[in-house]
Amino acid sequence: MTDFAATKDLFHLPEGIVYLDGNSLGPLPKTAAARVAKTVEAEWGQMLIAGWNKAGWMDKPMSVGNRIARLIGAEANSVAMGDTLSIKVYQALASALEMNAPRKVILSDSGNFPSDLYMAQGLCRTLGAGYDLKIVAPEQVHDAIDETVAVTLITEVDYRTGRKHDMAAITAKAHSMGALTIWDLAHSAGAFPVELAKAGADFACGCTYKYLNSGPGGPAFIYVAPRHQDRAQPALSGWQGHDAPFDFDITYRPAPGAERMRVGTPPILQLAALEASLDIWDSVDMNALRRASLGLTDQFIAGVEAACPTLTLATPRDHKDRGSQVSFRHPEGYAIMQAVIARSVIGDFRAPDILRFGFTPLFVGASEVDAAVATLADVMANDLWDRPEYKTRKKVT
Amino acid sequence: MTDFAATKDLFHLPEGIVYLDGNSLGPLPKTAAARVAKTVEAEWGQMLIAGWNKAGWMDKPMSVGNRIARLIGAEANSVAMGDTLSIKVYQALASALEMNAPRKVILSDSGNFPSDLYMAQGLCRTLGAGYDLKIVAPEQVHDAIDETVAVTLITEVDYRTGRKHDMAAITAKAHSMGALTIWDLAHSAGAFPVELAKAGADFACGCTYKYLNSGPGGPAFIYVAPRHQDRAQPALSGWQGHDAPFDFDITYRPAPGAERMRVGTPPILQLAALEASLDIWDSVDMNALRRASLGLTDQFIAGVEAACPTLTLATPRDHKDRGSQVSFRHPEGYAIMQAVIARSVIGDFRAPDILRFGFTPLFVGASEVDAAVATLADVMANDLWDRPEYKTRKKVT
């Protein structure tokens, strides 16, 4: 049983801030600075090139992947770290399409994160004749899976609304139609217990800088189900995924297992920060995390709905359909969020009208929820958002 | 004029080591630890999500790219940072093939780094019908460029021998045949002045963890010539290369210029280390660097040839054909290199028989060359390499 009052003390949180944006960029684990400094000074600085062996750098993509595996219900050695989520989406898509030829349809939904759709569009353009990305509404995904679909590309939790798909049901439907599945876990990994193996997922990928607290630009991960690992051919066939990278053959030959999804040299400084975070995550009871998360989102929904009648809930009320964030819609959402942020409650805005708040039990508790509700209520009741400086868009929102 | 006696003091080098492997992993700039710590603690820790605006994280791929540009003779705003070199090779190849349709041949050489060839093989497999990677010997590249070649994929400096291609001549030949060029600058950027714009190069890419001292897994870069920037279509079409990433459109629309070659969230900690290194590189006179480098490699060649008659020079004697490393061949190269490393002279081994030594004037001078020659001479003259512990292969060599 995880003591969530105690875990808060493991993160650095600036004084006076209520941070409800851990679903976008997780806060700094207190040990991360020292861990990164050790990697920079004692490893890079002192070991130099020998760090690849002595400090275990070369094995990090798989050893760290095994720590992610527990959080997402994946089998040992089925998760490889590296690159960005967009790249990992591309890898999974390219392999799945090849495995499921001659089918040529990728099915996704309009609630998917745009970069997943963009990567699919780019791959279809490269593949040419007949390859197509079909985008349906989120609620239509289950029914839209038919025998033309090669692979579904679904983000489990909608980045705007927090609506959670039923991974087991969609995966079962896909398999019944002969389709493969790719699950984007950007808003799932570290948000609640994910059960990839139990659901029978084929591929998955995710990032680590949100709920998993690895810092800005932390590495992504890719999951390949054990039954597919030796037949999934990497399209991005880089030397780190070669069976014998230091033989320097001129012909590519994939490594056994999920390790073939490695591409280039791994980002060792970013991985060090992630490892510091995983020192916390290793001991988190994921079921307890889910219970705490649902308690916080329930509390926030009830509080805001009572105090702010002009905000419209965008997040499902049913627990089984909810991730670990709560979103409200308002036409002036951007300005409202800037006013809330100016009062030290940090959420974010997603176009066109979404106010988004992430609930992360490791460092957010009931008192933070109360404070956030009170701030939002004050901003709305007194039209505090209606000022020019809150309406000027920043580059990153 | 750069004072290379003074620059040595800007790097952390372990006591007693002669480091001739800066062509594989450059040493730690003394300011990098503090720079990374600032990014971790004062930016990630204090600014949290606001760091993307306040700390300029979102702009780093292009602002840092402009600092790389000077070192490689590139125009302003033509270099984008991110991902790994293998990914950047794939991006350049995919765009070039599309621009030069209906040609389907990629021409490379057997001295190219294997990962470049692997990525090309993967892309050809994805593209299918008729796409082909043609690999010739390095000395045959110029003559092998004919009107069937869509694009040449050439690493300017051979990672094993240090042999340097004539970028201007090959680029001119390619253009005369209607082919495009991609230059891999892994062993060029920071090794000598590169003149991409002057040579008329079409695309280039490179890594930063070798001569450019960005640390293990530092980000790669891609160059797109200004004349191609708005017609090069990204195959890896990620949201960071979208014209308006925070509009969250569901359809990809590339950003203007080279920025479209960005893919996912940039690795901010690795970029911070690179920026510390660029604080040094910004003031380096690249022509003076080249003069110093040639002096060091000449000195090393002369010393080793005089002292070690059983080692065979693999690096060209002619300055115009030489990068910034010197390689010798020997059937027992692996064991010899381990014996040399055990005596604190750090070079590396490349299969099947190459002893490789990198010369990096920023922190290597004539006295280090003398020490390395003396150590290698001692190892060879007294067969000090002929011990079982030097013959056991490590994972990373």
Task: Summarize, please.
The first copy, chain A, has 397 residues and is an alpha/beta fold. Helix content of chain A is 38%, strand content 14%.
Describe the protein's architecture and organization.
- Two copies of one chain form a homodimer.
- Chain A has 397 residues and is α/β, with parallel strands linked by helices.
- Chain A folds into two domains: 4-29 and 285-391, Aspartate Aminotransferase, domain 1 (Alpha-Beta Complex); 32-281, Type I PLP-dependent aspartate aminotransferase-like (Major domain) (Aspartate Aminotransferase, domain 2, 3-Layer(aba) Sandwich), CATH 3.40.640.10.
- In chain A, 38% of the residues lie in helices and 14% in strands.
- Chain A has a seven-stranded mixed β-sheet, sandwiched between helices.
- The longest helix of chain A has 22 residues, at 286-307.
- Chain A is globular, with a radius of gyration of 21 Å.
- The two termini of chain A are 36 Å apart.
- The mean pLDDT of chain A is 97.
- At the A-B interface, helix 2, helix 3, helix 5, helix 6 and helix 10 of A face helix 2, helix 3, helix 5, helix 6 and helix 10 of B.
